[in-house]
Design brief:
Strand order of the largest sheet of chain A: 2-3-8-5-7-6
Strand content of chain B: 15-25%
Helix content of chain A: 40-55%
Order of helices and strands of chain A: HHEHEEHEEHEEEHEHEHHHHH
Mean pLDDT of chain B: 85
Largest sheet of chain A: 6 strands, mixed, barrel
CATH architecture of chain B: 3-Layer(aba) Sandwich
Mean pLDDT of chain A: 85
Shape of chain B: globular
Number of helices of chain B: 10
Radius of gyration of chain A: 33 Å
Strand content of chain A: 15-25%
Order of helices and strands of chain B: EEEHEEHEHHHEHEHEEHHH
Number of helices of chain A: 12
Distance between the termini of chain B: 38 Å
Oligomer: heterodimer
Amino acid sequence: MLTQLGDLWESVRVALDGLLANKMRSALTMLGVIIGVAAVIALMSIGAGVQAEITEQISSLGTNILIVIPSSSGRVGNGGGGGAGSITMDDLDALSDPANVPDASLVVPEYSVSGQIIYGDNNFSVSAVGTTAEYQALYELGVASGEFFTAQDGGDKVAVLGSNVAADLFGDFDPVGLKIKFNSATSGQTTSLKIVGVLEEEGGSMFASTDDSIFVPLDTAQTRLANARNTLGALTLNRISVVATSEETVAPVNDQIEGVLRADHDLDLTDDDDFSVINQAEMLDTVTAVTDTLTVFLGAIAGISLLVGGIGIMNIMLVSVTERTREIGLRKAIGAQRSDILFQFLMEAIILSLLGGFIGILVGVGMGQLVNLTGMVTSVVTLSSIALAVGFSVAIGLFFGIYPANQAAKLSPIEALRYE
Amino acid sequence: MSLIEIRDLTKVYQMGEVEVHALNGVSLDIDQGEWVAIMGPSGSGKSTMMHIIGCLDIPTSGSYILDGVDVSQMVESQLAAVRNHKIGFVFQAYNLLARTSAIKQVMLPMQYSRDGSRVPRAERRERAEEALEVVGMADRINHRPSELSGGERQRVAIARALVTNPSILMADEPTGNLDSKSGIEVMEVFHRLHEGRGITVVMVTHDEAISADAERVIRLFDGRIERVDRNGLRSEVESQKSKVGIPAQLMSDVGVVTPDKGSERC
């Protein structure tokens, strides 16, 4: 064992001697691998960073919320040409009944209308979310000024502003008590709304941001800001959020919701759902699948440059074998076995790729840090991307080194010594 | 028993359609401690002869027994092992590794020794230094080939050939690339090794002056031994030596055993 280790060390030294004898060439050869590995590491860590960010945003939604939205694959007729109107107030009533969904602790409806908000000369586009007072509890919204509307506000023309909306329209001025106008994009009507509260800043999210929305009572949104009736004359909803009593009851609640809605919509066994129930776990799965694919795709593109780097190694090793034919002849004349020569050249290729790999990791991590400085994405260097890069670069060294090394090993000493 | 016993050696090369008979039945014995020169015009088969004696190649037919072992039918890996510990090569073009110090050049053969003849790391340097001292290069062990003269390079190459204590020192035109003064110095090293240490020397050359140093000259022609000249004892060839221009003062040093004196002179 000790002598084998000694042998290994011996060949590492021989290979290092060979590489150091041609420093410039060795460095340039390594450059290909360095760029390849750095690209793999950098792109994969950016991919992992994006994934971590999205995952965190989804997690911040709360782990036991289920969201019911209309789905376009539903039966035509009920929703009036597609699924947009398939969720109605009847569904809300059915889901709100503890007898139907016993494991739900909270059911919150939403009906959103997009439009222009106008105050004085200022106006810009916002989404007006019609909902109930429970919305505040559901998303744990803090109130900076005034208060969130209550159940008593019914169809009143009142509004609560997200922090950005308030800041953009009024700056630091407290607007509670003032009136703004909302020009609905769907009905074209302009409605005057009294500001009753301003929310605290919630921070960004990949979904519609609370900060950029205004909130009105559900009735107000459905009847005053827009006409939410579908072809059958029922008031519709964009979404219903259902909070399960615990993480464990998310799955049963999911089943209960589907059962209730299918019965409510008179769907046959063969019909597809005309609604979708999304829970956080499912969303995470979907998003993770997408970002995983993205990361692999980025990695594969970077892998191509690693491959090119490997071909560079093979090229240089072939040149090196030709150039050192006499050396190989001499080594054989003084007793080097085929395996000695094979190992020497293979070792050179592996050292080139491994060393290039390590430098590449440093460069890649550095590039990730640079990306972090831009503030766009937070890159996350994963152990797996480093392992992949190192493994891949050793494999590249082996794969592209074996041919030149074999060419060297099978040279006849007589021919090699005669080589000019 | 002779160190080298060669019987009816033939070597046939296939050059495309044509068969080239490089050796046509050569028989030859070389004793332990002998100095033999192999001469002949190009195409006479002397290179082939050297390749076979040096275990770089095997004969097509015939037997070659080196140190009691039949090497004529050995496979590549066995030949490499034999070369490693029984043969020391000195080439016309030195064949030193570029950008490598003298000491590392000389340590190289020990790196390839296997199992039984493995030299412990610590001992390798010691032995390499010793070999360099023998050839008078003790003060140049860290010099690279580019920092050495031709004669010095060849002496490093001799040290490299010597370091494994081989049975035969094979030299192929060892002075072919050297000016006459360096050539003489290199030949002196061979004399010292031959006479002082009793090393068997087989030298391939077409230079009569060089072959004159040998005790026996094998003349090859068309793949056969044409003639064998015996130069007899050294004292009897003294006059021949002065003809080829070795100064008398240098001649007196020939055969000096002590390495100290050797390194002084170099």
